[in-house]
Amino acid sequence: MTTNSRTWFYNEPEHRPYLIEERVNQNLWAMRFGSIYLDCVRAEPPFRMEGAWNEMKIAIEWVPNQWFKVFADKEDATLVAGLSQTLQFLPAVSYINESGTFVAEWWRTDPAKHYEGVKGNPSYTHVKRYQSR
User: Fold this and answer.
1) For 54-86, how does the pLDDT look when each residue is reduced to its tens digit (9 = 90+)?
2) Which of 15, 39, 84, 131 has the smallest CB count inside 10 Å?
């Protein structure tokens, strides 16, 4: 199955875990995330998948064509860059949450508003804003 982010992020995928796993994993493998594997744990919006990449636990959540978030054990520039290429736009913000988890958020609308919301939360550290050059 040839797939890209249009089949699962820009358009709502079928609400069947196996098909979501196939679409997302195939897309990520095609984007050279060779060692990633994610299981679908929630097959309705917000969709959620959990798994590992390079021995690092990660999870992704999204509402189609609205927002996408990745949660990881630690910050990894390659992960953020690869997901940005997959989604075809930069994240709005990344930070370390109150649990010590790295989070990056992609927002289709008003990314500056979401950055300000994260920046204003005292529980979040290492807040970083992403902007096109």
Assistant:
1) 999 999 999 999 999 999 999 999 999 999 999
2) 131
Tokens 């920046």 map to which residue?
Answer: 119
List the chain domain ranges. Answer: 5-129
Q: Please give the structure tokens belonging to residue 73.
A: 């054990």
Record the tokens describing residue 45, joined without a space: 């919006």
Give pLDDT tens digits for 3-52: 899 999 999 999 999 999 999 999 999 999 889 999 999 999 999 999 99
Task: Tell me the backbone φ, ψ of residue 83, rounded to 5 degrees.
Answer: -70, -35
Side chain identity, residue 20 = I
Does residue 19 contact residue 3 with C-beta atoms inside 8 Å? no
Helix intervals (H) in 1-133:
17-30, 77-87, 111-119
Largest CA distance in the chain: 44
CATH class (in words) of the domain with range 5-129: alpha beta
